[in-house]
Amino acid sequence: MLTGKHLIAGNWTGGDETFTSQPAHGPAHAFSVGTAADVDAAVTGAEEAFWSFGYSSRESRAAFLNAIADEIESRCDAITEVGTQETGLPEARLNGERGRTTGQLRLFASHILKGDYLDKRHDEALPDRQPLPRPDIKMVQRPVGPVAVFGASNFPLAFSTAGGDTASALAAGCPVVVKGHPAHPGTAELVAQAIDAAIKKCGVHPGVFSLIQSNGIEVGEALVKHPLIQAVGFTGSLRAGRALFDLCAARPTPIPFFGELGSVNPMFLLPHALKNRGAEIAKGWAGSLTMGAGQFCTNPGIVVALDGDDTDAFSAAATTALEAVNAQTMLTDGIASAYRKGRDQVAKTAGVRELMTSTCDLRNATPYLYRVSGEDWLDNHVLGEEVFGPLGIIVTVSDFIQMQAIARSLQGQLTSTIHMDDADMDEAKALMPVLERKAGRILTNGFPTGVEVCDAMVHGGPYPASTNFGATSVGTLAIRRFLRPVCYQNMPDALLPADLG
Ligand code: NAP
Questions:
Q1: Is 452 domain-assigned?
Q2: Where is the Aldehyde dehydrogenase domain (predicted)?
C-alpha cells in the first residue's frame, strides 16, 4: 500500500537515499529523500500544467476538487490507520480532520462555481468625456502559477497534502508542489494516491500536483528558490517560517510567502464574567488548552485577569480541571522536547510561579500552569512567545490600565478572546480597538481552538501570527493568496479570459 516514493508530475519515483518514519505506534516505513532534481522536475511539470490548468473552466476545476474529496473518502480506513500510527492522534480526531479536509475541498468547488471570488469590475468606456475620453476597463483575478505548499506537522490532513493551501491553490487554477512533513509521510503518500487517482479520472494534466518527501530543509529551500514557483503556503514554526520568508524575499524575483506561524492567543477575563462564571470559564479553558495535546496554533496559552479573589478561584478551578488531564502523545519527539524546553524557559523566568506540577517525558505531554504578575509579564517578552503544547499562563493585572497595557504590548496574534458579561461592556469597548490591531480573529465568550471553515473566517493576523496580514489560510478568502488582479483595457471580447464573459 505504501511505496515510500514521491509523486512527481504523474510519476511515482524514488532515489537511493531514504529516511524512516517514526510512528507513535505501528510499523515504520522507509521514504525517499527528495533532491534538487526532484524539485526541478516537479516544478517544471507544474509550470507545464499551468498552461492548461490555469486556463481551465471553473466547472472542470470544481469537478476535480470534488473528485479528490471522493478519492480521499474511498481511502478513509487506510488514511485513518496510517495517520493515527504516525501522529499518535486518536482515531476520532483523524476521522474528523478527514471530514474537514474533504469538506474544505468541496467548499472551494462550490465557491469557485459562484464566481464572486473573481471580483470582476468594469468601468465602461466614456468616449465623450472631456478633456479626455475614458477607455473601457475591466478587471478580474487570475491564478498566479505554480505554488509550493509545506505540509504541517499538527494537521496531517487539513493543513497538509490536500489541505487548505492545496485546495485553495487548485481552486484558483494554480498547480501545487507539496513538500511533505516528515512526521506523517505515509499519510501524505495515501492522500497523494487519492489526488493522483482524481487527476486520472478527470483527465487533468499530471503536473498539476506533486508530493516530494523529505526529512531535511534542502527540499523546502530548493522549492521556494525555484524561479518558476510564484507563491508559498506554510504552517509551522516562527523560526522555519521566517527562514523561508527571508529566502522568498531574497530571490532575484521575490515571491509572496504566506506563512501561518506562532501565536499565544490571549484571553482577557473581564471582572463580571470572572465573578459570575469563573469556574465555568476555567473548565472550558482547560479543555481548549489541552485539546490535541495543545498542538494547535489557536491554543489559548495566556489568560489575563484582575488580581484578587475571583482570579484565585479561577486559578484553583483551572488547576483542578488540568490535573484531571492524562498525558497525551505528541506529534514527534522533537515537538515533545521543544515543549519541555519551552516549559523550562517559562518556569525559570523572573516572577513566574508554578500552579500545577506534572511530569512528562519521551513523546508525552502533560499540562503545566503558571501564574505571573502583569508587571513581570510586561518585563519578560519571552512569556509572550508560543510554547507549542498544553501550557497555560495566568497573568494577574493590578487594574484595567495594566490589562490594556498588556493588550497593547502583544505581538500579532491569530486570535484574541474577551470573556465578558453585559456589565463588562465599557471595558470590552476599550479593549476592542487594541485587539483589532493585534489579531486576525476576535472572540467573545468562547475558545479559539476549532476554526470554522467558512466565508467569513480569518486565520491569520499581524506578524508573527502570519507573514502577510492581508491573508487567511482558512476559509474561502484563502483563495485570494493565489490570485493576482489583471486589468484589460479596450480589449476585444475574444481576447478576454472566459471568466470575464
Ligand atoms: P517547523 O520546524 O516549522 O517545520 C515545518 C516544515 O518546514 C518542515 O517541513 C521542515 O522540514 C521545514 N523547515 C524547517 N526549517 C526550515 C528551513 N530553515 N528551511 C527550509 N525548510 C525548513 O515545524 P514542525 O516540524 O512542525 O514543528 C516544530 C515546532 O514548530 C513546534 O515545536 C512548534 O513550536 C511549531 N509549530 C507551530 C505551529 C503553529 O501553527 N503555530 C504548527 C506546527 C508547528 P523538515 O522537517 O523536513 O526539516
A1: no
A2: 30-452
**pLDDT for 105:** 98
Mean pLDDT of 182-200: 98
* Ligand 1 centroid, distance to 67 Cα (angstroms): 30
427 is catalytic: no
CATH code of the domain containing 357 = 3.40.309.10
Task: Confirm or reject: Cβ of 402 under 6 Å from ligand 1.
Answer: no
User: Which residue in 174, 248, 297, 360 is the catalytic one?
Assistant: 297
292 lines ligand 1 (CB under 6 A): no
Q: Kindly give the distance from the C-alpha atom of residue 306 to the centroid of ligand 1, in angstroms, as a whole number.
A: 36
Which atom of ligand 1 lies nearest, measured to the CA of 243? 18
Judge whether 458 lies within some domain. Answer: no
Number of domains in the chain: 2
Asked whether residue 126 carries a pLDDT value surpassing 90, the answer given is yes
Collapsing DSSP states into helix, strand and coil, what is residue 309? Answer: helix
Give the domain range for residue 95.
6-261+466-500
H or E segment to which residue 260 belongs: strand 257-260
pLDDT digits (tens, 9 = 90+) for 239-265: 999 999 999 999 999 999 999 998 999
Task: Give percent above pLDDT 70 in the chain.
Answer: 100
228 lines ligand 1 (CB under 6 A): no
Question: Which pLDDT score, from 0 to 100, does residue 90 have?
Answer: 96
Find where cell 488548552 sits. 289
Q: What is the pTM of this model?
A: 0.97
Section 123-152 average pLDDT:
98
260 is known as an active-site residue? yes
Residue 228 sits in the same domain as residue 271: no
| CA–CA gap between residue 353 and residue 349 (Å, rounded) | 9
* 167 in Cβ contact with 104 (< 8 Å): yes
* Residues near 272 by beta carbon (within 8 Å), at least 6 away in sequence: 420, 421, 422, 423, 424
Going by alpha carbons, the residue nearest to atom 34 of ligand 1 is 388
